[in-house]
Write a structure and sequence with these properties.
It contains no helices and twelve strands. By secondary structure, the chain is mainly beta. A hairpin with a 4-residue loop joins strand 7 and strand 8. A six-stranded mixed sheet has the order 2-12-9-4-5-6, with no helix packed on it. 0% of the residues lie in helices and 50% in strands. It is globular, with a radius of gyration of 13 Å. It starts with a strand and ends with a strand.
């Protein structure tokens, strides 16, 4: 059974940090590109970052560049999103998913991608 399980969300104050984790099982994790997405209330889902399976490609959307860092530990079947200098505008449900293509300029999704259930991140004073 394919599973992606996000964790690490919570309530933090502006300027603080969080680290999200995406634990995968049920498929050959090493062969898959992984992306982080977020959806704020009343807004469309947004691609935040992705990391490729083998060739080291990493992408960040402009609004998180310099603040978020994506990484993966294939031995643990886990992708991380380290988020620093958080802003209220980062408040959203964060999802991880497999993505068909991850390049430094963006990503391509597929109808066959796997998705997690999401974790809530709230940035508020």
């Amino acid at each position: 059974q394919v599973q992606l399980v996000e964790s690490g969300g919570g309530l933090v104050q502006p300027g603080e940090s969080l680290r999200l984790s995406c634990a995968a099982s049920g498929f050959t994790f090493d062969d898959y590109n992984i992306g982080w997405f977020r959806q704020a209330p009343g807004k469309d889902r947004e691609g935040v970052s992705c990391i490729s399976s083998h060739d080291g490609n990493i992408y960040y959307t402009n609004s998180v560049k310099g603040r978020f860092t994506i990484s993966r530990d294939n031995a643990k079947n886990t992708v991380y999103l380290q988020m620093a200098s958080l802003k209220p505008t980062d408040t959203a449900v964060y999802y991880c998913a497999t993505v068909k293509i991850c390049q430094t300029t963006g990503w391509t999704s597929s109808e066959y991608d796997y998705w997690g259930q999401g974790t809530q991140v709230t940035v508020s004073s």
